[in-house]
Design brief:
This protein is an all-alpha fold. It contains 6 helices and no strands.
């Protein structure tokens, strides 16, 4: 065997050393992440603005009464369907409650309104509900508009 020159190819590392290297790399990255996240100043959520009740509730009532009258007039002239009119009346009543109390009533369900201490608003919305979601024939828009007007007028 004289052709054997004595050259041997490089030896391969064990697969265990690869895993040890990756574990050390993960440990260093984890340490930097730990230090970074634990030395940051905590973020303080912005304080929500405090609700201030309107100073002139009579003017607010008058504005909403005019808007209710406008919806009733649109329903009488045929510009709004009966269902759309009932939905608009309910939304106006809920917006009035929000503007007077600061409670986000336009986003509340009827059950949430009943659980909240707003019984006049909950009762008025409950009386308008059949016109919004009930089956045909729908209640008259004039009756629902009067319900909304009464709720706004009697608000104290």
């Amino acid at each position: 065997m004289q052709d054997d020159s004595g050259f041997y190819g490089p030896l391969q590392y064990s697969l265990g050393w690869t895993w040890v290297g990756l574990a050390l790399l993960a440990l260093v990255v984890g340490w930097y992440a730990f230090v970074f996240f634990n030395t940051r100043k905590p973020t303080v959520p912005a304080a929500s603005p405090r609700f201030t009740p309107p100073s002139d509730i009579d003017a607010l009532k008058e504005a909403y009464l005019q808007r209710i009258d406008a919806v009733a007039a649109d329903a009488d002239s045929g510009r709004l369907t009966a269902r759309a009119s009932h939905q608009e009346l309910s939304l106006l009543l809920r917006k009035f409650v929000r503007d007077v109390t600061g409670v986000d009533a336009p986003r509340m369900t009827l059950a949430e309104l009943h659980r909240h201490p707003l019984p006049p608003a909950a009762e008025a919305v409950a009386r308008i509900y059949p016109g919004e979601f009930g089956a045909e024939p729908l209640p008259s828009v004039a009756h629902s508009a009067e319900t909304a007007r009464q709720a706004v007028r009697l608000w104290n």
